[in-house]
Every structure is written in C-alpha cells, then in structure tokens.
Amino acid sequence: MKADPSKTIVVIPARGGSKRLPRKNVLPLDGLPLIRHATDVAIEAGPFGRVLVSTDDPEIADTVGGVQGVSVDDRDPGLAGDKVKVIDVMAELCQRPEVNSSFDVLGMLLPTCPLRSADDLRGGFELLDDTCDAVVSFTEYEFSPLCAVRLNDEDIMSPVYEPSPLITGNTRSQDQAPTYRPNGAFFFTWIESLLRLNSFYTGRVKGFLMPRSRSVDIDNAEDFAHAEWMIANLRGQT
Questions:
Q1: Which strand (E) or helix (H) includes residue 35?
Q2: What is the pLDDT at residue 199?
Q3: Nearest Cα residue to 207 out of 152, 144, 137
Q4: What's the CA gap between 194 and 23, in Å, rounded?
C-alpha cells in the first residue's frame, strides 16, 4: 500500500525562541522569510491533505497566516522550550483525535533546510509504503565520521571510533564506505508508526538521498550566509 497524499498532514515546526540565530524563522532569505521557503515548497509538492505550521510565536503565525493552503497551530508554551524534542511536538499533535482520525501519514519539514525542492518532497513521499515505517532525507557526509576525534582539556587528541583511519593510515576518501546524515529537509512516517515507535529513525526506515547543494541546514549566521551564497550560485547556473 502506498501513502495517500490526501491522507497526509505536513507539519512545519517553527518556534520563536531560537538563540544561536535570533528570529531566524522570519529572517528574509532570497526575498522571503525563512519559514515561507518551507510552506511554499510543501504547497508546491502537494496537494497534501493539510499543511500546518506549529508555532508559539505570533510573528511567525502572522507571517504564514495569509498563505493559501496553510493553517497555523498555536503550540502550547510547554512544548516550545529549548529542551523540548520535536518528536514530542509531533507525537502530541498526532494523538489528537481530529488528526489521527483524518490522516494516516505525518510529514515534517524543518524550516532550517530551505533549499529542498518540491521534487525532493515528491520523491521521498513516493518511497513511503507499507514495507517501511518512515522515509527520511539524507545527504552524504563531507568527510568520513570514522575520522572524528575528541580533544581533552589539554587539547590532546583521542579517536572517537576504533580502529581510527587516522591511526591505521587508511585515510583515502575512496577507501571509505559512503556514510550519510539527516539533512532536515523532510520526514514522512505513518502516524501509527510514530505513535508506536516515538521516533523517525526506529523500525524500518528508508533514506532519500539529496545533494549537498540542497542540504544546507541553518543553525547560525554563518549557515544563513552560506544559504544566501548557495541560492545566488544555483541561480547563476540556470
């Protein structure tokens, strides 16, 4: 059984209390507030049953409130703190009778990955069927994580993983198996799976690979500047 877009709710979590880049969800990127890059691509990729922005912030709510096809959920302040996990926000929403009685699939788009495309979303959604619990977007690590090290209080190095390629000398990138990381572009999961597993990464999870050029993840001002540069660079190639 394939997932049905009409039975899918796509949620964009966007709290107002970002600290490393204050007010990042409403900062203008390529002429649009950052949050609008997420809402607009969700609408373009659909039609999904519902596109919902979950926020505790009035300015974010106002920014997306007039966007056709997008609704706003006023998040409980208790689910808006720094230590609240996004999976807890999604689980609370999926436990609501009006959600789990109307939808079979939850999609989640983090607003911090603004360069994903509608084709990325469609491609990931197409992978969700009854042979898996979830589909998550990934991109290839820039450098093998097997080479990761720790530095102690005296700045002395110790490998995170054993045997470390740094110690064995096997550091050629072509000798390392490709490894991947989530990029935050999208998560699609059966609501039943999310409520049962309380995770996007547990159970049988399929990965949808995206290029690094569309996998910018904005966490701080440097990331934001990189996203601006990437947009200008990609536009110059068209």
A1: helix 34-45
A2: 97
A3: 137
A4: 29
Instruction: Give the whole-angstrom CA distance, residue 220 versus residue 202.
Output: 29
Q: Chunked in runs of 10, what are the mean pLDDT values of the chain (238 residues)?
A: 97 89 95 97 97 97 95 92 92 96 98 97 98 98 91 96 89 83 97 98 98 94 95 74
Cβ 52 vs Cβ 71: under 8 Å? yes
Give the number of residues written for the chain.
238
Which amino acid, residue 75?
R
Taking each helix axis from N to C end, the angle separating 34-45 and 58-65, rounded to the nearest 10 degrees, works out to 40
Return the pLDDT at 82: 81
- How far apart CA 82 and CA 47 sit, in angstroms, is 32
Paired tokens of 200: 């996007």
pTM above 0.90, yes or no: yes
Neighbour order of strands in the sheet with 50-55: 70-74, 50-55, 8-13, 105-108, 180-190, 134-140, 205-209
Q: How far apart are CA 167 and CA 171, in angstroms?
A: 9
User: At a CB cut-off of 8 Å and minimum separation 6, what does 137 contact?
Assistant: 116, 120, 124, 182, 183, 184, 185, 186, 187, 207, 208, 209, 210, 215
Q: Cβ(80)–Cβ(15) under 8 Å?
A: yes
